[in-house]
Amino acid sequence: MKKFELPNIYFGGDYTPEHFPKDVMAEDMLLMKKAGVNIATINVFSWGQLQPDEDTWCFEWLDEIMDTLAANGVVADLGTATASTPAWMAKKYPEILPTDETGLRWNHGSRQCFNPNSPKYRELSATLVRKLAERYKDHPALSMWHVNNELSQMVGQDFSEISINKFRNWCKDKYGTCENLNQRLGLYFWGNNIYDWDELMPPMKTAHQHSTSLLLEWKRFINECYMEVAKAEIDILREITPDVLITTNFLYEYKMLDYHAWADMIDFISVSSFPDPKTTNHPGEAALSHDIMRGLKDQPFVLLEQAPSQVNWRLANVNKKPGVMRLWSHQGMARGSDGFLFFQWRASVHGSEKFHSAMVPHIGENSRAFREVTQLGNELPSLSEVVGSDVQADVAIVMDYNNWWTCEFTPGPTALLNYLENLQAYHYPLHEQNITTDVVPVDRDFSKYKVVIAPIMYMVKPGFKEAVEKFVAEGGTFITTFFSGVVNEDDEVFNGGYPGPLSDVLGLKVEEFEAMKPYIKNSMKMKDGQEFEARLWCDILQLDSAESLAEYGSDFFKGSPALTVNSFGKGKAYYVATLPDKAFMQQFLKQVCAEQGVEPVVDAPENVEAVVRSNGDQDYLFVMNHNYEPVDVTLPEGEYFDLLTQSTVEGTISMDAVQSLILKK
């Protein structure tokens, strides 16, 4: 049984009644009841209000909020308030402030402006968390703990003397001797060897490029530092409130932290998800984010922050059109979310986020935003049976944060290489064809899948080669791409060329690669005469046991393989040596999946998404029309009950613009 299973669907938002006159809270409780709100995130950035100086504590205002929520049937996602340090702390202990890569210490004045390695920050935050836990451990409103907030978002790294010395000790513990460090990280290149640990410097501002291996180790170090910040709070909370769920909200499309390393530390994954609601937005953007979050623990997650309408931090902040907020919430549920919270409940009247949308905008309840959240909140109880069910997927995309880091900060072959865009290049065509995809780490068991795709598997970690070979030998289909099998976990190039440890299963070697300017294109010519565009990159291959399925159409390597397949045991391994166009991806992935018996959930018109969740006894079919116009959709055979309309449907049905169906047989 999963540790994480909500008692019902959580619905609410970030709530800051302390920023408003006291009489507003009474109105809030009435509006929350009307909207179906059952949870409120509180106390996220309130350290300064709880502790106005080092010796004074003021919990009475928070007591009132907790008591009021409990009295009105609303539970609390209680923040630990450690995300923003008080002004007095920066003044009295300036070492808590972060230092940038130039050695400049930042000033107090925004959120999350702290050095994660500051002993004083750690000490004072631990005191705060302990006081909160002891005070509210038995409070009826306490439902879950919200540790810090979107960690490392504002301060991605710190270069203070505290962090530099800690990094040296971290490397010393890991490598033992300077010589071992020099060899493993290749610091002899450009004569950057060190002979004493106090000579080791992190990647601060310097004359030219840093060692990529050093950059990788620094990223791993910073990731562990922020994990320590979170774990210090979590350990206190588990000691005092062992039965209360703990989370910290991750960020979608965020590469600064290795979320795979974080997953086991918290009880459930939660995410702040803010896709751009411009009408040209691909619905796969949010779908990929949800698939990544679900894959971290292979279980449902919670949308802890989303926008009721527009955000405030893009160049132009487009509103969500009528019905889109509800549709995107249903999309989140389809892909594994069991909770829907928003930033923010009531629109702020001060600060930089006063024009960020809210469940209750400045005009109040007589607004489109409030009517739409009320509609969503009041229909969610009818969907409660979906809670805890699993998204059904036969295809997996392998994602690795170390790969994301290294392939993008490695100088050459092209600065245009974008790891996330290459994931999207495979995920979006599958999404468009309603072939549901899990996104999994490199060490996940592949045996439950029929097709596994690993785009840009630049770094091959120990065990991955064996896992892929076992999966393919037993009948699975594996797909990887250019710039794969290049380096080991130290960012050291494999001897014998690329794709390194994956050469046997792929049946080929890469002789060289050609990076293309944005305005240069090549082509892929298939054996049946079809021709597709090839862009960004072309690997020039030497085939061993692999068979060529397509050839390049131009340049000095014209006629050489651009797409290969290799039989290995009972399965097949494909190598896509370039970045093909969308038309190829749709056709190729559909064919590969069909060969493995993987069919679309629903064969639907463009921009109609279909996903199945199942609890083992009951399947739930989600059908979502992302078009701004009606479409006809033919359902799989049988009669269905729509949980949203509480009515039966079957056959071909007409769906309104941005309409959802949540069906069970």
TrEMBL record:
The active site is at residues 150, 305. Residues 393-598 form the Beta-galactosidase trimerisation domain. Residues 608-665 form the Beta-galactosidase C-terminal domain. GO terms for cellular component: beta-galactosidase complex. It catalyses: Hydrolysis of terminal non-reducing beta-D-galactose residues in beta-D-galactosides. Pfam families: Glyco_hydro_42, Glyco_hydro_42C, Glyco_hydro_42M. Gene3D superfamilies: 3.40.50.880, Glycosidases (3.20.20.80), Golgi alpha-mannosidase II (2.60.40.1180). Residues 14-382 form the Glycoside hydrolase family 42 N-terminal domain. InterPro entries: Beta_galactosidase_C, Beta_galactosidase_Trimer, Class_I_gatase-like, GH, Glyco_hydro_42, Glyco_hydro_42_N, Glyco_hydro_b. GO terms for molecular function: beta-galactosidase activity. This is Beta-galactosidase. It comes from Pontiella desulfatans. The lineage of its organism: Bacteria, Pseudomonadati, Kiritimatiellota, Kiritimatiellia, Kiritimatiellales.
